[in-house]
Amino acid sequence: MIPSIAALPLPRLRTARELVPLALAAALLATAIAYPLADGDTRNAVSWAIVLLGATLSVVHAWLSRGARTGLGVLVLVGGVAVAFESVGLATGFPYGSYTYSDVLGPTLLGVPFLVPLAWLMMAWPSWLLGGRLARPVRPGRRRAARIAWAAAVFAAWDVVLDPQMVDAGYWTWAHPSPGLPGIDTVPLTNLAGWLLAGVVLMTLLDLLVERTATPPAVGDAAPLLALAWMTLGGALAHAGWLGLPGSAVWGAGLGAAVLAVLAVQHARQP
């Protein structure tokens, strides 16, 4: 018996709550594609647009998916931790190493350009979401620690791709860029150590924030995770093809592939 058209299931229509994060993610991806194709002042404007879209996506998704208190909490918490770590880093060299920002980044707070905490916002929320997915197989008693560890690692790994690009653009410079990761001679290993430390602190606080403020998720995590994947793997492609940064391209592709492999193994083991 052939079912009638009326009996066939209709595709579920997405609500505005679901479409807004996806629209922001699409705008972010389109703007990121424009970055390697631009130069000069246009490229600087594209950088600002990427960071503003990414930060907006994180706050809006946290708000729409887990409630207004979580969205506002993410904005205040991540922005505050970013300014604290970056201002201490500028003044003391701890925990990243000694570095200086260029004037091209515009207005600052405690010496930290406004672009920087916005970049933290862009990176932190998707990293926490992915950390949660990677920690799912861990037994409940250890899941929080695993989630924080994974999220901090993803947060630091994202910067492995981002930092050489920003140095190449002239946004900041390192006083002592060596030793660095193989293939990356403009960013010291101390920066990676600093990002891991900052990531552990930030993801611990973010985890506590979500625990105390969040309602059950009302929107899936596809939009911020798509943004994270594209900014890492797409960034690696841009580094290799257009920006002349083969070392960070290899690291970005390798780290992204490793995370995808872990997720694939987890999916295959699901009953």
From TrEMBL:
Keyword Ligase recorded: no
Keywords assigned: Membrane, Transmembrane, Transmembrane helix
InterPro entries named in the record: CruF-like
TM segment ranges: 44-64, 71-92, 104-125, 145-162, 192-210, 222-242, 248-265
PANTHER family in the record: SLL0814 PROTEIN
Name by which UniProt lists this protein: Putative membrane protein
Species this chain originates from: Blastococcus aurantiacus
